[in-house]
Amino acid sequence: MSTSDQPAIAEPHLIRPRLHGLLDDGVQRAVTLIRAGPGWGKTTLAAAWAARRPQPVAWLTLRRWHSTVPGFCSGVAAALQAAFPPASVPGRFGHVSDENGLRRLCGGFGQPVPLVLDDMQAIDGSPAMRVLAALIRRQPAGLRFVLLSRTEPDLPLHVPRSAGGLFPLSAADLRFDDRESAALVTLLRPGAVTAATGVVTGPAEGWPVGLRLAALTHGSDPGEEIGDYLTREVIGGQSAAVRRFLMRTSIVDEVPPELADVLAGGTGSRRVLTLLEGRTGLVTGSRYHGQLRAELRRMLDREAPDEVAGLHRRAARWYAGARMIPEAMRHAADGGDWDYLSRLVVVLGPQLSLSPQRDTFAMMLRRIPPELLPTTAEFVVCAVMLAVFAGDIRAVPALIDRARSLLAGRPPVERQAVGIVVDLIEVCTVLRVTGDMPAMVAAAGRILDQLRAEPRTLPIAPHVRAVAKINKGVALLWTLQLEDARQHLSAGLAEARDLGMPITAITAESHLALIAYFRGSLREAERRACEAYAQAEALDVTGSIQVTAAYLALALVEVERDRHVEAQVLLRNAQRSVADPPEATLAVVSVLVRAHLALALGDVAAVAAALRQAREDAGPSLRAPLLSRWLNAVQCEIDLANGEPARVVERLGEVAGPSPAEQVLLGRAHLALGHGTDDLHQVLTGNDPFAAVTAGIAIALAAEARNDSARGEAVRGTAAAARAVALADQEGIIRPFRVLGAGHLRKPEPDSILAEPLTEREIEVLQFLPSVLTASEIAVELAVSVNTIKAHLRSIYRKLGAARRREAVTRANNLNLL
C-alpha cells in the first residue's frame, strides 16, 4: 500500500519478484540504500514494491526546499501523516519543524514503517543530512529507511549487511537479466518475436530505461531519444572536465586507466572511472555501456571533430605497446595513420595471418589506400599479404622482389627486420606452393640463423622463430630427413602453443601425423591427425590448408585398416581444404592416397592412372625427394601386381639407404624370384611396425609355400607370423593380410568370439568408429537417420562391453572385427 507523493508507475510495468524479495529482506534492517545512476529504475522499483505491500509505506521525494532542517522535518512528518492519518495515531501528529519533534514522531509506531526517501542527491551536503544522519545513528524502532540516490550519501552507512544494519542495492542488482529483458520488451511490444527482442535487448545491456526507449521506438531509430536522455540525465550532470574525459575516451571499446590517461592527456583516470561507475552504473570497470559510448562518440564528432584522428593515433600506439595488435591496427586505420599501420603489419602483424584473427587482419589491410601499396617496403609487405589472402600466390614473387628492392639503402636494422618478414612470407607461400623443398630448408634455416644472431631485431621474433621452425620441419620431411623434421616440428609445435598460435600448431601436428605414418606407426599417426582435427574444429577452421596433411595422414591410416569408405571421405575433406593454387607436395600426396586406395581394392589400372596424374601434378618446380621415392614405390607395387619382380629389383637395387617400406618391396621381389628372406627378416626386427607386419606376412607365406621340412625355417615362419599379428593388432593393421592372402594368420581364438554377435548392419557401422566422423556424418554415408545410427551404436557398445567409442574400437580390434 503506497501513500504520500509516491510517483505514478509507468505502464505497462514489469513486476520483478526477484528485487521485490530483496526489498522485503532490506526493510528488516535499519537502512536500505538503492544507489544507481539515472535510468536504472530505482523509483519505479520502489514504487511498485510499495504498491504491492499490505502494510503502509511512507514516501517523500526530496526537493531543494527539503535541504533545510525545518523543510526536511516537515516533509518527513507529512509523509508519515499520509501513511498514518492522525486519528490512527493519536497525539502523534502536529507541526514538526526540528530534529527533536521528528525524533518524537518516529519513536513509537506500533510496527516499523518503511520510509522511502527518493532523490537523496537533492539534499547532499545540506543541514537536512545531519538530521537524517542523527536519526540513522539512533535507529528509531518505528522507522525503516529506504534511501534512493544517484550518489553515495554522506551518511553513517558503513555498517555491513551481515550486522543487520545497511542493506545495499546497486546498478548491478537493478540490471535486467536476459529473461527479464525479453519479458519487458514483449510487454511493451506485444507479439514481439524472439529475434526482434534480441535486437532490442542486446544494445541496452540490461539498462532499464535503454530497454524501454528502444522497445517503444520500434520501427524507428531509438538512438536519438536514448541520446537525448543520456545527454540530459547522465552526461549533462557531469563537470566540463569529466564530459571532456568521457568524450575522449569513448573512441575505444574498453578504457583501462592507463589508456584513459593517454587519451585524456592527464593522470587520475582511475579515480574518475571509479567515480563514474558509482554515479552512473553505465561504467563498469574499464568499459562503457554501449549506448553511452555511442552517444559520447556522436558528441565527440559533433563538438571536437579535429581531435578524433589524433585520439585514434594515441590509442594505436598504446595498444601496440601493450601488444594488442588487432586493436592497434584498427585504431591506426581509424586515425588514417597508414605509415604506422604498415610498420605494425611488418613488426607485429605476421602472426595474425596464421591466427583465428586472420579475417580481422585482412580487413585492416584492405583499408589501406591502394595507391600507397607500391611505395615502401612495408606497404609492399601489406600488398603481399593481401595477395595471399586473396589466393593470388602467383603475384607474390614479383611483390617480394619489389619489397627487397625498396629496402636497398635503408638503415641495416630496418633492412634486417623487414627482410626477415619478407623471407618468411616467401618460405610460407612461394616455396611451399612450388614445392622447392631444399630451397625451403635453406631459407627457413637462414631466418633461424638471423634470429639467433640478432634476437631483438623483431618484437615478434619468438613467433617468427616458431613459424620458421615448423616450415623447416615440413621441408625436411619432404627431403627425407625424417628425424630432423620431427625435431623441428615438435619444437615449433611447443613454441606455437606457448605463444598462442593455434593455427600454426595445427600445421605442425598435421605434418607430424604424416611422419608417424612414414615411420609405420599408424596409432601415432591417427592420434596426431585427430588432435590436429580437434584443434581445427575448436577454431572452426576444419576446411583450412593447415589441416590438409592431417586428413591425408588419416586417410592413409584408414586404407591400411581396410576402411575404404572412411578413407574416401577423408580424402574428399583433404581435397576441399587444399588452397588455390595448392601446395605442390600435398597435391601429389592427395593423388598418392587415391593410388593406395586403388591398390587396396586391387585395381592396378586405377593405380597406374593415379601414378601418371601424380607425376603430371608434380610439375618441374617440385623438388621433394621423399615424393620421388614414394612414386617409385607405388610403381614397384604395380610391378609386383603385374608379376614383374625383376623390375622392382632394378628400380630399388641402387637406392641409397632404402626405407623399411622399400626394403619390404625389394624383399618381396626377391622372394618372387626364388631368393631368400634375409632382407625381410631385417625389417621384421626393425622399428617400423607397418613394414614389419608386411615383412612378417611375406616370410610366413613363403615358409608355407615351400612347405619347409626344415624345422628351423618352419619355426622362423611361425615366429614371423606371430610378430606380424602382434604388431598388426597393436597398430590396427588389416589390409596386408587381405591383399597378400594371409587372413588365416590372424583368426580369432574361440574364447575371443562375442557371445552375442553383431548384426551385418552393426558391423557396417562399426567400421566407421575409428574415424573422425560424427554420428550425423556416418548417417549421411549410410543414408539412414542419425537416430538409427545412435541405436546401432548403443547396441554395439553393449555387445562389445564398451562404455565409449575408443573402448569399442580397441575391443573390436582385439576381436579382428575391424
Care to describe what's here?
The chain is mainly α. Among the domains are: 17-174, Rossmann fold, CATH 3.40.50.300; 412-615, Alpha Horseshoe (Serine Threonine Protein Phosphatase 5, Tetratricopeptide repeat); 643-746, no CATH class; 750-814, Arc Repressor Mutant, subunit A, CATH 1.10.10. Helices cover 62% and strands 4% of the residues. The protein contains 41 helices and 7 strands. The protein is elongated, with a radius of gyration of 39 Å. The two termini are 76 Å apart.
Question: Could you name the key traits of this structure?
Answer:
single chain, mainly alpha, Rossmann fold, Serine Threonine Protein Phosphatase 5, Tetratricopeptide repeat, two-stranded antiparallel ribbon
Question: What's this model, at a glance?
Answer:
This protein is mainly alpha-helical.
What's the average pLDDT?
86
Percentage of residues in DSSP E strands? under 5%
Q: What would you call the shape?
A: elongated
Radius of gyration: 39 Å
Largest sheet: 5 strands, parallel
Estimated helix fraction = 55-70%
Question: Would you count the extended β strands for me?
Answer: 7
Q: CATH superfamily of the domain at 412-615, called what?
A: Tetratricopeptide repeat domain
CATH topology of the domain at 412-615: Serine Threonine Protein Phosphatase 5, Tetratricopeptide repeat
Question: Which class of the domain at 412-615 in CATH terms?
Answer: Mainly Alpha
